[in-house]
Amino acid sequence: MPKIKIHPLFIALAAVTIALGESLAFLSAITAVLLHELAHAAAAKLQGFRTGYVTLMPYGAVLNCDDKLDSVSEVIVAAAGPAANFCLALFTAGIWWLAPETFNYTAEFYKYNIFLGFFNLLPAFPLDGSRIVKGFCKNTARTIKILKICGIILSVILICVFFASLADKPNPTMAVMGVFLLIGALTEPRRQMYEHVFKNSPLTKNYELGVKECVEYVSRNTTLRRLLRTVDSRHIKIFVIVNERGKPVNRISEEELMTYATAFPLSARVGDIAGKNS
Hints:
about 280 residues; alpha/beta; three-stranded mixed beta sheet; 10 helices; elongated
């Protein structure tokens, strides 16, 4: 079971909620949220990944995962949370059938599980639905941009609902959710995009399928562009630079090649560059 941390603003929200006489609703919501995140953690563990801790936030909770998930595992782990909420709602309804007198005490718990299940399936960052959609889409970069826009739109809608509630019964929860979801929609896509770029970098090797180490002899007149095209996830290459007579004069690794590619034009000749930096 992952460790549980508490955000300071969560304590403030809890105090306000209890002061307003909504203790049962607050307890029901927190229980539903915690079980939601623990379902994520259990699914990640079953997939062989390490989980860190759960942080209780003013708008819910966040699970920190120590390992980076592949696309299939990310869909499974993301779907586990809403699935747990729906199962808990079904279980609660079953209790009503066996013991109708429990309805007044468990109705809020049922309601929050239904809400959490459907709300988290919305395709918007940083909700679970965004990770499910991203896991199924091939064009990851474009999908991340669209999900970011959806997250911003959803955040604005929640904030507008809060202002609309001021005319009758203020609903500060909508404001808190809107603000924190907006922060998530603006920051989460950056991390997702970084992970996408890193995962698809030729320097990231696919060791599950096997990686071969090989030496490739190239002319000193070969350009950076040509060498970059030969780098892939299934090989670790060492480039031996030879002169016009085929005699080795220098060698560069993939890491050095990537460094040169960011510092020099791709049309530059590797012999000239390696000579300057040897």
